């Protein structure tokens, strides 16, 4: 909230005076953010308390029950939690707002998003738990019992045995950690009359948090921020640093131990670390078969940091709207992996749809005195003539990353190996099959990239989206080959 009636969401500024609470020229996610009321509990929010009070009163006047975007179950869930947090902290909700909270909880109780499941259903349950503890009486007890029942049933479904969130997005994993910490925090402050009913759930939540924190830690770059697999962007969930700090305040210590190989076998992500290099690799399914809405066609993609500097990246997530930008973000072409015949490895379409999808095969990870090795195959191209299979092997040592891409099958096919460069890194061609990567701020050499099979390396413009609505110009390398299968491409990055 940047003014009494002005907001900046998804890096787009707009005024309530101009667009109201349901301006149809604004994308749905932007309008959802209007109705979340996240700013009530933001850092420095107390200085905006008068704005917040006026904003709540405006919402009450302009959003009668069941009318408009604000009454969709998901924004209703987030708003219930934020209003209750704010009132427990400051005791400033008016009697009318408290009455509205009860109406919102009653409305939500009848509209749980069981058809969507995933993070939406969990947030619905979290809101009912907050409302059930905030209010008293038989109806509040039913809200609490329903919320606890959903959380109990969803917890093992959504949090995998290795600690990863089952939608396999680093961003949604961070949001899930916040949800669990919020519930644990709330339970610690709950009145004695409800502590017995919440105790079992509290213990189960507490058992998941350490695994989830460790997963988040290993899936971050050395710069402290998340890697980009499936729908992921900074600035939506609390930062990893904020989550580790929150966890510490409610009794959980972060474990920052770093091994040469961390393989999250249930999630399908791997961290390789050697010398100054960290490789984060996707050898995962795209997500639950029944809930692939946040999936990208990014199987066998990876990101690379050298020291604290990102070097190879995936392109990120710019928006959730239907259209070319969303299609581009989710495409295989926007990720650092191999593209066969210009096709997506998983059939992503519309905003949150996936048809045919890639499945990982034969994943192996090992280490020796020379370095660490990871390999995996996916079948996302077997619908093409000749049934191509893509197998990738990463070999990381102290001074280089060797990437071997093999596409087996039959017939003539075009295979493009894409390496997206982080912003601030430019590629300088030395020959057709070698480029040097240079830091644009210092002109210092970062690494060299060599195609060992003499495939030409083409430097192309690209774009990185670290946040929704925030494109940053960048470059990518394309190594192209068209020939009979099997084809094998070897790329060496040295530093």
What would you say about this model in short?
The chain has 495 residues and is of the alpha+beta class. The protein has eleven helices and 21 strands.
What is the element layout, followed by pairings?
Layout (H helix, E strand, L loop, with lengths): L5 E4 L2 E4 H4 L8 H9 L12 H14 L10 H18 L4 H15 L8 H17 L3 H21 L11 H20 L2 H27 L21 H10 L11 E4 L4 E6 L2 E6 L19 E5 L2 E5 L10 H7 L7 E3 L7 E2 L3 E2 L5 E8 L4 E7 L10 E8 L3 E9 L3 E10 L3 E7 L2 E6 L5 E7 L5 E11 L2 E15 L2 E8 L1
Task: Summarize the structure in words.
The protein has 495 residues and is an alpha+beta fold. The protein has eleven helices and 21 strands. The strands form four sheets. Strands 3, 4, 5, 6, 7, 8, 15, 19 and 20 form a nine-stranded antiparallel beta sheet that branches. An eight-stranded antiparallel beta sheet has the order 11-12-13-14-21-18-17-16, with no helix packed on it. Strand 4 (269-274) and strand 5 (277-282) form a beta hairpin. Helix 4 packs antiparallel against helix 5, helix 5 (95-109) crosses helix 6 and helix 6 (118-134) runs antiparallel to helix 7 (138-158). 44% of the residues are buried. The model has no long low-confidence stretch (mean pLDDT 96).
């Amino acid at each position: 909230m940047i003014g009494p009636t002005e907001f900046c969401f998804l890096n787009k500024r707009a005024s309530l005076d101009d667009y109201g609470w349901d301006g149809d020229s604004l994308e749905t996610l932007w309008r959802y953010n209007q109705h979340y009321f996240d700013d009530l509990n933001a850092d420095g929010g107390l200085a905006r308390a008068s704005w917040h009070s006026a904003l709540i009163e405006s919402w009450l006047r302009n959003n009668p029950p069941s009318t408009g975007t604000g009454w969709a179950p998901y924004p209703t869930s987030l708003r219930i939690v934020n209003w209750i947090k704010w009132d427990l902290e400051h005791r400033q909700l008016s009697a009318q707002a408290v009455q509205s909270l009860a109406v919102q909880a009653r409305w939500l109780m009848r509209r749980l998003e069981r058809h969507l499941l995933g993070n939406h259903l969990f947030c619905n349950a979290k809101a009912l738990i907050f409302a059930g503890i905030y209010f008293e009486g038989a109806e509040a007890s039913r809200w609490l019992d329903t919320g606890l029942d959903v959380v109990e049933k969803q917890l093992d479904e959504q949090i995998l045995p290795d600690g990863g969130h089952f939608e396999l997005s680093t961003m949604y994993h961070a949001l899930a950690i916040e949800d669990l910490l919020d519930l644990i925090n709330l339970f610690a402050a709950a009145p004695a009359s409800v502590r017995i009913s919440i105790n079992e759930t509290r213990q189960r939540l507490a058992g998941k948090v350490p695994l989830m924190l460790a997963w988040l830690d290993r899936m971050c770059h050395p710069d402290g921020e998340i890697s980009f697999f499936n729908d992921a962007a900074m600035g939506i969930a609390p930062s990893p640093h904020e989550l580790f700090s929150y966890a510490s305040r409610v009794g959980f210590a972060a474990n920052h131990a770093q091994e040469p190989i961390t393989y999250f076998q249930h999630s399908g992500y791997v961290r390789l670390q050697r010398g100054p290099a960290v490789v984060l690799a996707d050898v995962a399914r795209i997500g639950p078969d029944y809930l692939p809405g946040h999936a990208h066609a990014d199987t066998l993609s990876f990101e690379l940091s050298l020291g604290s500097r990102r070097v190879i990246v995936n392109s990120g997530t710019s928006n959730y709207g239907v259209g070319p930008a969303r299609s581009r973000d989710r495409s295989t072409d926007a990720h650092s992996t191999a593209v066969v015949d210009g096709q997506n490895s998983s059939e992503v379409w519309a905003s949150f749809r996936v048809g045919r999808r890639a499945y990982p095969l034969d994943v192996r990870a090992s280490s020796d005195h020379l370095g660490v090795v990871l390999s995996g195959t996916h079948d996302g191209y077997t619908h093409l003539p000749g049934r191509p299979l893509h197998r990738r092997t990463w070999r990381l040592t102290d001074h280089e990353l060797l990437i071997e891409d093999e596409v087996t099958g039959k017939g003539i096919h075009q295979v493009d190996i894409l390496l997206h460069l982080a912003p601030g890194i430019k590629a300088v061609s030395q020959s057709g099959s070698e480029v040097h990567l240079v830091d644009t701020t210092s002109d210092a050499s970062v690494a060299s990239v060599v195609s060992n099979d003499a495939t030409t390396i083409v430097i192309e413009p690209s774009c990185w989206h670290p946040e929704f609505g925030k494109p940053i110009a960048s470059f990518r390398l394309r190594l192209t080959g068209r020939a009979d299968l099997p084809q094998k491409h070897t790329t060496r990055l040295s530093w």
